[in-house]
Sequence to fold (357 residues):
Amino acid sequence: MINVTRTFLPPIDEYMNCLSRSWNSRWLTNRGSLLLELEESLKGFLRVPNLLSVSNGTVALQFAIRALGLRDEVITTPFSYVATVSSLVWEGCEPVFVDIEPETLTIDTTKIRSRITERTTGILATHVYGNPCFVEEIEAIAEECGISVIYDAAHCFGVDYKGKSILEWGNISTLSFHATKLFHTGEGGAVVTKDEDLLKEMHYLHNFGHEGPDAFHGLGINGKVSELSAAMGLSILPYVPQIIERRKAVVERYKSNLENSEIKCQKIRTGTEWNYSYLPVILPSEPDLTRSMSQLAAFDIHPRRYFYPSLNKLPYVVPQNCPIAEEVSQRIVCLPLFDTLDADTVDQICEILVGKG
Ligand SMILES: *Cc1c(COP(=O)(O)O)cnc(C)c1O
Fold:
């Protein structure tokens, strides 16, 4: 069976070797030495000054929303994973949807200003499949209007933009280390910010609000990461450059196979050093998509409709129109992509897609 992704696992002896440190110390959580080492390694690898590990990419978003004090209306994108919008609603904010650009699939910055009101407190945008938003323009709008910016960078592990980490943009960026992501700790995530005060605030939030053992800074919950997860991350991190290299070769093969077909790929923003985290393709129509998916399923090949449906259609948001996101989400599918996917399978998938299979 070929799925849309295949979780990378390190050699088990390397994982056990890491875990043995936790066995020897009998220390399983509460920011143990494996986690502290992982955070240091991640800061080095991603070239960011601050990073706080949290238990998943969804609470990372919730902590970011809360630390920035977002409330009332928040501008966001309809084209993302549900967690982007559900986090806003969970934190008591009203999502205001701005449609996407049809080629980059990121939020259309030309449509943001007209949706900003006196009740707008921030922008939460997704770097879609690791493709950066038009961050310069979003920064200009945010400065002009005095509002905050969060980037859902769940897909952005290792993405650089114009020579520096994409995570440097916005007030806070969030990462997911879920097992389906390029780098993972089983479950996990992180928040990245240059602002020391925000970092401190999110630190309190993820540890019950504890200020030392017997005092509390404020309301918090448990968003901590165990040593077992940290060991997974530490054992995978050295393989990331190789994982990205191999995925790049797979993506290039897909792209050259599909080049002269009706099937379109996402346009990656100029200046991006991408991480090849997903391979979304846009088919001519939804019937083409369902037909291709069932043809692939006959060979036990399972791409995934991601992102579908468009998030402005969620049952718990105020209905809003986003014609481009709605239309794209009906025709887009993420093809199988992982480091060990072989060229023959890529060719087979492409032949089925372009109708020669
Ligand atoms: C995976 C993902 C999340 C959620 O991350 P979890 O770690 O699974 O909670 C949020 N946003 C996007 C865009 C994602 O792809």
Remarks:
- Residues 56-58, 80-81, 83-84, 126, 152, 154-155, 176, 178, 189 surround pyridoxal-5'-phosphate (CB under 6 Å).
- Residues 240-258 form the longest helix (19 residues).
